[in-house]
Amino acid sequence: MQRHVAILGAGPVGLDAALACTDAGWPFTVYEAADTVAAHVRAWGHVRLFTPWDLNVSRRMRTHLPHAPAGDDCPTGTELATRLLDPVAALPALEGRIRYGTRVAAVARTGLLKHEQIGTDTRAAAPFTLLLDSPDGEATAEADLVLDCTGTYSHPNTLGLGGIPAPGERAIADRITRALPDTRDPGRWAGTVLLVGAGKSAQTAARDLAALPDTRVEWSVRSPAPDWGAVLNDTLPGRQHLVDTSRALVDGANDRVTVHTGAHVRALHGAGDRVRVTLTTTGGPREVVCDHIVALTGYTGDASLYRQLQVHECYATGAPMNLSAALLGSAGGDCLAQPSVGIDALRNPEPHFFILGAKSYGRLNTFLLRTGYEQIDQLAAAYTAEAEPLPAGT
């Protein structure tokens, strides 16, 4: 008997999962909270990836879309969405399979609580119940295999020391930008910008904000000696450019940019139209009065979706334990050198429930779309190899 697959999220990995279901002949539904596919990608649509088309188009996408973009050019988020993901979503095989404006609020095992029937065939055979927030109100749906591909971009981390909100942060939360700033309108960022973070998103923001003539940047970096994620003999020019630019800004290449290393946001206070921020740095306390705050301190997935399921999370990354153990045990932090971990590393104690894509990496920042597509390959191969398309037990 064919059983139903629920795919949560219509981003790149969710759409690739939908194509895998199509190829295998499995019935499926994609649940997407936004009114279009690739909502997270469009949120940073003005930014150019440092990975080329050939790393961002899956094997399945190219099979179904023979004329999909190819080559070494690096697309922007908007180009990725409009030239690849929109055409994938428009394929006849996906027609009527994507439910837009429908957020999966929670997933449970029908009739069973989290602590019941641990490791039994009874639990594995029970269908999942999905609680849906849809345009028509609350509803439920059932599925036999659930793939959580919801990503992380809608759940940014906070600013304070140790990862909790800094005092005053919650009171002015609506004045903090937690996504990559779009600098195509220079006037939007006139004045002083406090930028917090040191990863590739923050490096991109620093580069773009530094180019605006009416903008001054106060850049708060947690490490006293950041290495900017440099990779020896980097084969991705765009990534190396960000490292080079960040090093130059630390060295004073732009007199409108001050980099505070070894810094933490201690407190924030509204001061009329501006914000007064106290930083703790290796050189002592600093006070910055700014017009804008851009917080790019990373993102983590929404774990509340599967609170009632048996998911073993890594205490360090917040991601599924088996996968985290495999990734943390691998050498190096180059996203191009991530290991192919296999289906067992993707499994959770909850049978037939998988966390895939960027969310599966938790706090690790080495995820590439290519990795997500490989995860779909591994899952499809494992389930196809079973005696039934979607067996009742693992």
* Number of E-state strands: 16
Low-confidence runs of at least 5 consecutive residues? 387-394
DSSP helix fraction: 25-40%
What sequence of helices (H) and strands (E) makes up the elements?
EHEHHHHEEHEEEEEHEHEEEEEHHEH
CA-to-CA gap between the ends? 16 Å
Helical region count?
11
Quote the beta fraction: 15-25%
Rg, alpha carbons: 22 Å
What does the average pLDDT come to? Answer: 92
Bulk shape: globular
* Biggest sheet descriptor: 5 strands, parallel
What structural category characterises the helix and strand content?
Answer: alpha/beta
Strand order of the largest sheet: 3-2-1-7-16
Structural account:
With 394 residues, the chain is α/β, with parallel strands linked by helices. Helices cover 25% and strands 21% of the residues. It has helices spanning 12-24, 39-43, 53-56, 59-64, 77-89, 121-125, 200-210, 237-250, 321-328, 343-346, 369-385, and strands at residues 5-8, 28-31, 98-99, 103-109, 128-134, 137-143, 145-148, 176-177, 191-196, 215-220, 257-260, 264-271, 274-281, 284-290, 292-295, 353-355. The strands form 4 sheets. A 5-stranded parallel sheet has the order 3-2-1-7-16, covered by helices on one side. A 5-stranded parallel sheet has the order 8-15-9-10-11, covered by helices on one side.
Quick synopsis:
About 25% of the residues lie in helices and about 20% in strands. It has eleven helices and 16 strands.
SSE order and pairing:
Layout: E1 5-8, H1 12-24, E2 28-31, H2 39-43, H3 53-56, H4 59-64, H5 77-89, E3 98-99, E4 103-109, H6 121-125, E5 128-134, E6 137-143, E7 145-148, E8 176-177, E9 191-196, H7 200-210, E10 215-220, H8 237-250, E11 257-260, E12 264-271, E13 274-281, E14 284-290, E15 292-295, H9 321-328, H10 343-346, E16 353-355, H11 369-385
Parallel strand pairs: 1-2, 1-7, 2-3, 7-16, 8-15, 9-10, 9-15, 10-11
Antiparallel strand pairs: 4-5, 5-6, 12-13, 13-14
Helix pairs in contact: 1-11, 7-8
